[in-house]
Design goal:
The structure holds 2 protein chains of 2 kinds. Chain A is an all-alpha fold. Chain A is 76% helix and 0% strand. Chain A is built from 9 helices and no strands. In chain A, helix 2 runs antiparallel to helix 3 and helix 3 packs across helix 4. By secondary structure, chain B is mainly alpha-helical. Chain B starts with 8 loop residues before the first helix and ends with a helix. The chains are: A mainly alpha, B mainly alpha.
Chain lengths: 182, 189
């Protein structure tokens, strides 16, 4: 359906008459990746839906200014990650919750969520992942589930590949430990 | 998304097997789901929101511009300036009007009278009271003061001294007004 490359989509977007069409194609191309990336950070579907919409509105507003120094999708991922982290921080401050309390809130919310279809082992794994510190959790999800290369992750998260590798390694070790203990 | 093949996938799974054998056995799948038709509807919802946002920004874009804040600040400064100037000119008008009144009455008052009106002390009070006794004849022509024509200055002082909370300043103030009114009336007569 959507065989346009990012470059072609950008060219199409820059033509005034095709802006809406080009953006619609862009959303269709990346909506799932962006959605699942955010969903793994905030867990709840309704929150994810709001953040996805805000992310694409930001992309719409700034696409004109996008400099093609980085890949389009790494730029979009960066916006999505920032939006999700801002959402968490805003809510944490709003409800006076510590990071630990907020992670527990996530853990409880996904088990009550009608949109969770995993079996017991998946549920266990998700609970363990939620125990990881925020940045480690993002790195783990991006590497393990989305299979994003360290180099691209480095552009998205603005962190060195070495630090990302170390972060992923520590996350896997923690998950292994939690799984063995429970 | 999870079926994506990456050239380093083998290395990755090997790495996991070595590092966390139990964990590597867990099937890698997405345990979450979305409502029906969610991804079919999402692009049009996003497009609609983007267009609404653009429309809003077009209508109210002037609010977002820094020039807007500069203009508003300037307008506020101008309004404050105008209000201050207006207030000043009104005060001046009142002062001029008061000066005119003084000038009007000054035609009838001697220099000594004006000085007396402006400044009172205890001695002046006594002097005024004594003068009032002399001017009682004139007062008697005015019906309002007719009953007081035989009252002397001593009577007034005694009367005021008997009053509770008598205060010399109040007395001076009362007399200042009375004296001023009487003088005006005397001259008008």
């Amino acid at each position: 359906m959507n065989n346009y490359s990012d470059k072609e989509l950008l060219e199409l977007f820059h033509k005034k008459d095709n802006r809406n069409y080009a953006f619609n194609l862009l959303v269709r191309k990346y909506q799932k990746q962006i959605y699942w990336h955010i969903r793994k950070i905030v867990i709840n579907h309704d929150d994810t839906n709001d953040i996805v919409q805000n992310t694409f509105i930001k992309i719409w507003k700034n696409l004109d200014k996008f400099r093609e120094d980085s890949k389009l999708y790494t730029w979009m991922y960066r916006i999505a990650t920032n939006e999700a982290i801002s959402f968490i921080n805003k809510n944490r401050i709003k409800y006076f919750l510590s990071f630990t309390d907020f992670e527990n809130h996530f853990a409880n919310s996904f088990t009550d969520d009608n949109f969770f279809t995993g079996d017991e082992i998946q549920k266990k794994l998700q609970k363990v992942i939620l125990k990881l510190p925020q940045k480690q959790r993002i790195v783990f999800n991006m590497r393990y589930f989305d299979e994003i290369k360290y180099k691209e992750m480095s552009e998205i998260l603005n962190t060195s590949t070495g630090a990302l590798k170390a972060s992923y390694h520590i996350a896997v070790k923690k998950i292994k430990k939690y799984l063995t203990e429970n | 998304m999870y079926n994506k093949t990456h050239k380093n996938n083998k290395d990755e799974s090997q790495y996991l097997k070595e590092l966390a054998p139990n964990f590597s056995k867990i099937e890698k799948k997405n345990p979450f789901m979305v409502p029906n038709d969610y991804f079919e509807k999402l692009p049009s919802i996003i497009q609609q929101k983007c267009n609404e946002k653009t429309l809003w920004e077009k209508r109210f874009s002037f609010i977002l511009r820094p020039q807007y804040y500069v203009s508003v600040s300037l307008a506020v400064i101008v309004i404050i300036f105008i209000l201050i100037s207006y207030n000043k000119s009104n005060t001046q008008k009142i002062l001029i009007a008061n000066n005119n009144n003084i000038e009007y009455y000054a035609k009838f008052l001697t220099e000594q009278d004006i000085l007396e009106i402006g400044d009172f002390d205890e001695e002046t009070l006594i002097e005024i009271l004594l003068n009032e006794t002399n001017s009682n004849k004139k007062i008697s022509y005015i019906s309002e003061y007719a009953d007081y024509k035989d009252i002397s200055a001593d009577d007034i002082i005694n009367y005021l001294s008997d009053e509770e909370d008598n205060n010399i300043d109040d007395m001076i103030n009362e007399l200042r007004v009375t004296s001023y009114e009487l003088r005006i009336m005397n001259y008008e007569l």
